[in-house]
Amino acid sequence: MSYPRRQAFVIAALEDIQAQFGCVSESSQRILAAHFNMEMGELESLMAHCADAFSAAPARPRAVTLCQGPVCMAHGAGQLCQELNEQDVDCELHICLGACDRAPAARCGRTLIAPADAAAITRVI
Ligand code: FES
Questions:
Q1: In what order do the strands lie in the sheet with 63-67?
Q2: CA 121, CA 101: separation in Å to the nearest integer?
Q3: Cα–Cα distance between 3 and 17 in angstroms, integer?
Q4: How far is CA 74 from CA 49, 60, 65, 123, in A?
Q5: Is 105's C-beta closer than 6 angstroms to any atom of ligand 1?
Q6: What angle is formed at CA 11 by the lines to CA 4 and CA 45, rounded to 5 degrees?
Q7: Is ligand 1 within 6 A of the CB of residue 112?
Q8: Residue whose CA is closest, atom 1 of ligand 1?
Q9: In terms of pTM, does the model score above 0.70?
Q10: Is the CB–ligand 1 distance for residue 43 below 6 Å?
């Protein structure tokens, strides 16, 4: 670790780790706490205070449940899935989301998007 052992550099170290790995894992936190001579609680408290900037777990991949039922397939669900994959969105396939009259249908968490297109889905996820 190339940071001076002064606590003034903790934020810089956290930012670098977050940027490189997408999170500051518990093992990284232990290494940082030892390096900066901090209690784990102090470091956790600091990360909690800056929760918008640092996370202990990697962000979930962007994902959507996309209907592959016959009506949605007839309305372009296959093409939509391909388009989303090209935008690094994982498509979990599902048979009929119950919105056939508004096909193609997708679900992001509890939000039903119908008719769905890539722009509407990426706005939600
Ligand atoms: S077939 Fe897609 S919502 Fe029913």
A1: 90-94, 63-67, 106-108, 111-113
A2: 18
A3: 12
A4: 49, 30, 17, 24
A5: yes
A6: 120
A7: no
A8: 69
A9: no
A10: no
What's the token pair of residue 114? 């119908």
Domains and CATH numbers, the chain: 7-49 (no CATH), 63-124 (3.40.30.10)
What's the rounded mean pLDDT across residues 61-79?
93
- Report pLDDT for 57: 84
> Any residues with CB less than 8 A from the CB of 68 and at least 6 apart, and which?
77, 78, 81, 93, 94, 95
**Ligand 1 centroid – CA 33 distance (Å):** 51
Could you tell me how many residues make up the chain?
125
**Binding site membership of 114 for ligand 1 (Cβ less than 6 Å):** no
Question: Is 96's C-beta closer than 6 angstroms to any atom of ligand 1?
Answer: yes
pLDDT, one tens digit per residue, over 2-51 is: 888 888 899 999 999 988 888 899 999 999 999 999 999 999 999 998 88
